[in-house]
Amino acid sequence: MMRSVRCALALALASLAGCDLAPAYHPPKFVLPASYQGSGPWQVAHPQDQIPRGPWWEAYGNPTLNELEARIPQNPDLLAEREIYIQSRDLAAEAESGLYPQVAGGYGMSANRQSPYRLWRSPVSKAPLYEPSVQIDAQATWEIDVWDRIGNQAHARKRLAQAEAAYLALVELSLQAELANAYLTLRGLDQTITLYEQTIVYYQKALDITLMRLSDKIGSALDVARARAQVSTTQALLHDIIAQRALALHAIANLIGVPATGFELPPQDRTPLYLPVIPVGLPSSLLERRPDIAAAERNMAAANAEIGVARAAFYPNLSLNGAFGIVDAGFNIVSLPNRMWSIGTAIYQPIFEGGLLRAELQFANSSYRQTRDNYRSVVLTAFQQVEDQLSLNDQLAKEVAADRQALQSTTQAQTLSMQLYTSGATSYLEVIVAQIAAFQASVSDITGTIRLQQASINLVRALGGGWSAGDLPTEKQTLPFNPLRPGRSSGGNVADADPGDWRSARPDP
Questions:
Q1: Using CA atoms, how far apart are residues 204 and 210, in angstroms rounded to an integer?
Q2: What is the DSSP string of 101-168?
Q3: Under a CB-based contact definition with an 8 Å cutoff, are residues 129 and 114 in contact?
Q4: What torsion, rounded to 10 degrees, do the Cα atoms 273, 279, 284, 288 define?
Q5: N or C: which end of the chain has fewer CB within 10 A?
Q6: Could you tell me whether strands 102-113 and 317-328 are parallel, antiparallel, or unpaired per DSSP bridges?
Q7: Does pLDDT of 1 surpass 60?
Q8: Are the CB atoms for 309 and 364 separated by under 8 Å?
Q9: Phi then psi for 325, rounded to 5 degrees?
Q10: CA-wise closest residue to 497 among 54, 176, 56, 93
Q11: Spatial contact of 227 and 205, defined as CB atoms under 8 Å apart
């Protein structure tokens, strides 16, 4: 009778195994517009259009930038973020281990030799003086995950590992965009330095003209002083631009993980990048293209699983345990009469915890709401960034076109004013005004072009840089190894697996 009751109880408990107490998880829904508000040619996109996957910067057609971007994987911040991702995978494996039985073995041996002259020992005693003892045993415990407490812990950890994979992609994208912007800044300064050098040569020629006119008694010393001041002021500003270039160069060295000392990039005074048309796509696709949105969603999914863990703490905890061993006073340890064993169950039911479990449940619920609100914030920020860059690209394109017209007009005015001054038809003050206007127009043309190219880079960054949610590892793929095949991963030894790419460190099937 008792045996039947025990069997029925075991079957009932087995039927409860896997009872998930976590709430049903549904990511928040957003009502999204059919198109972005920003205008411009980059908004025209078709379903087959995509930002280049992987090396998106190659669309800008600059070999030097391509070489620099290929060195981003050596950035120490990115390497540190990879280690954080690796640690998150190990934590996921640690949580997953609770689903398996825990088995341990032991071995013990001792030897004892007694003195034949010890007290109370009979001279005719046949008791052995030498007494060896050997013990071999094994113990096993297994917590039956009736309420899916361990399962939800494992789900939470694996989802957090997915979030870390998304954060890793986000850091990499940010560094890639930062490097592209720093490179554009450097090349913009190269163009500005060339402009300053050409302007100084032009101003020096103007100074020579004023000196010649002064020697011919048809010019004034005031004109000479003004011309000399222009040359000196421009030379001083040139040194400031050269210093800015050095700082930009040092920033690039830091981004690619090399010392600034000795790092150099030869100057280039041409437009650094080809400006491609960026396919924006539909607003609804942005949720699948931004790694920060994916990370926020995975954090929310992990917090949802933690609610199940907190709920399960209110219910009984069932575990099985057993042991088997062999003990012998000699070395005949394989003799079955020397065996020992035990088997049993344990049930732990919280009765009074002083409000601990309730507080933990409330904390888990609040944490989920926090991640939900954070997810909404990340999504809203993502749309703001895309709209910002669309508007900026649109207006900067118009600004660059206007700068080109202004440059053409001011250059013409500078030439005419110098001709009039040489013929004595105008004062040198008019020449200075025309020179300053032409110089400022040239600087604006360079600055506007670089800003437009940087805005294009930032638009790609706001759109996710070619990343998609399909690049995330699945929950199973976050596990660094298969626990049923210790010491192995898909690439061989766990320590030999590539830590930076989850695809090369998948668990064994």
A1: 10
A2: -EEEEEEEEEEEE--TT-TT--TT----SEEEEEEEEEEEEEEE-TTSHHHHHHHHHHHHHHHHHHHH
A3: yes
A4: -60
A5: N
A6: unpaired
A7: no
A8: yes
A9: -160, 170
A10: 93
A11: no
Cα 391 to Cα 224: distance, rounded to the nearest angstrom = 47
Backbone angles phi, psi at 226, to 5 degrees: -65, -45
3-state class (DSSP) for residue 185: helix
pLDDT at 12: 52
Residues listed for the chain = 509
Cα(98)–Cα(384) distance, integer angstroms? 43
As given in the structure block, the two tokens for residue 483 are 């626990």
Helix (H) or strand (E) holding 320: strand 317-328
Kindly state the tokens that stand for 327. Answer: 């003990």
Residue 345 CB partners (closer than 8 Å, separation 6+): 318, 319, 320, 321
Per-residue pLDDT for 422 more than 80? Answer: yes
502, 477 contact by CB (below 8 A):
yes
**pLDDT over 90 (residue 323):** no
Radius of gyration, alpha carbons of the chain: 38
In our burial notation (b when 16+ CB lie closer than 10 A, e otherwise), range 337-363 reads ebeeeeeeeeeeeeeeeeeeeeebbee
All residues at 6 or more sequence positions from 487 whose CB lies less than 8 Å from its CB, including other chains: 481, 493, 494
Q: Which domains does the chain have, with CATH numbers?
A: 32-110+132-469 (1.20.1600.10)
Closest residue by Cα to residue 168 from 476, 478, 509: 478
pTM summary value:
0.84
What's the rounded Cα separation, in Å, for the pair 255 and 178? 8
